[in-house]
């Protein structure tokens, strides 16, 4: 009987130890980050795109265009005017940026009216239009490795025979790239934003992306998602956990890739870009103290997330 008591005691002790590791230590050693929300911060609401990004990728050509206002209903909307200085003049681009989130993803949408295709694109080489969102994840006003960002690139092909109905051209090439703030880049001799894979990081925050382009108005529409948290050995610092509330500085950019960037006497990081609230490209400073604040709050999930057709199911 004595050995049974010892065995029972050992099992109970093991359960206690395991419970401590799973339920106590995470909250002691890795306390949830719950930031206070400052006045004037932009709060990203709970929502999901409806239809989902996966469904948008399957929309038949005769049903174009899909309407981003409807797809991102309930999202935070930022009305922005970008002014991109080009050799041929300044492109003035009235834009609307949409931000929403659920427990897993940050959803980002953008409608950029009159951006037009990149003038350097040609049949042999495609140079993209792109939209960036960058984060001061630590929210301390100073960019340090490895602050995270996201870039959505779209190469718009020239219109030609067989253009879909309504002038919408879906012959697009797009990509989603993780960005990271590097404290020093040898090629430019200073700190700057760079693609995460250039630093040996895996691209593990990318979700899905869809895009459309209107040939008649030069309007580019983008929607994409990024993981709020995803495990990976190399990763940037934007890694939220359930039950957390983060306040982060953020910056928006719209740009056109310059094929002469860093060549033929052109300055490195010499793309044609404008930013919101102001343009700081090409990042001669790591000062982000003036960036507006963005709030993502995972502390109180709603029972039904806007954008769902049935509670508990994803659209």
Short description:
It contains three helices and 14 strands. It has 315 residues and is mostly beta strands.
Notable traits:
Immunoglobulin-like, eight-stranded mixed beta sheet, mainly beta, 36% strand, 11% helix, 315 residues
Describe the structure.
The protein is mainly β. The chain has two domains: 1-31; 35-297, Immunoglobulin-like (Sandwich). 11% of the residues lie in helices and 36% in strands. The chain contains three helices and 14 strands. The chain has helices spanning 2-29, 53-56, 68-71; strands at residues 42-43, 76-86, 89-101, 105-112, 129-136, 148-156, 168-169, 172-185, 190-195, 206-214, 219-227, 245-256, 272-276, 293-297. The strands form two sheets. Strands 1, 5, 6, 8, 9, 12, 13 and 14 form an eight-stranded mixed β-sheet that branches. A six-stranded antiparallel β-sheet has the order 2-3-4-11-10-7. Strand 10 and strand 11 (219-227) form a beta hairpin. The model is unreliable at 20-27, 163-168 and 310-315 (pLDDT under 50).
């Amino acid at each position: 009987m004595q050995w049974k008591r010892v065995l029972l005691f050992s099992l109970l002790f093991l359960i206690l130890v395991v419970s401590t590791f799973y339920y106590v230590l995470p909250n002691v050693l890795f306390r949830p980050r719950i930031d206070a929300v400052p006045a004037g911060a932009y709060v990203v609401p709970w929502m999901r795109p409806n239809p989902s990004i996966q469904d948008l990728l399957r929309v038949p050509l005769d049903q174009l265009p899909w309407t981003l206002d409807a797809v991102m209903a309930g999202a935070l909307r930022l009305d922005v005017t970008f002014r991109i200085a080009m050799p041929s003049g300044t492109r003035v681009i009235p834009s609307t940026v949409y931000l929403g989130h659920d427990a897993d993803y940050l959803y980002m949408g953008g409608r950029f009216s009159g951006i037009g295709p990149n003038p350097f694109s040609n049949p042999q080489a495609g140079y993209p239009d792109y939209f960036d969102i960058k984060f001061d994840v630590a929210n301390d006003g100073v960019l340090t490795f490895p602050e995270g960002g996201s870039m959505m690139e779209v190469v718009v092909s020239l219109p030609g025979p067989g253009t879909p109905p309504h002038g919408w051209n879906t012959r697009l090439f797009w990509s989603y790239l993780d960005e990271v703030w590097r404290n020093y880049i040898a090629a430019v001799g200073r700190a700057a934003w760079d693609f995460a894979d250039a630093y040996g990081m895996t691209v593990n925050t990318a979700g899905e992306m869809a895009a459309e382009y209107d040939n008649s108005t030069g309007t580019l529409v983008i929607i994409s998602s990024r993981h709020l948290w995803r495990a990976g050995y190399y990763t940037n610092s934007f890694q939220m956990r359930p039950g957390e509330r983060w306040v982060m500085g953020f910056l928006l950019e719209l740009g056109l890739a310059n094929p002469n960037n860093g060549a033929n006497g052109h300055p490195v990081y010499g793309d044609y870009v404008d930013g919101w609230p102001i343009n700081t490209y090409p990042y001669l400073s790591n000062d982000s103290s003036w960036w507006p604040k963005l709030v993502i709050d995972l502390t109180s999930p709603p029972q039904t997330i806007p954008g769902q057709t049935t509670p508990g199911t994803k659209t």
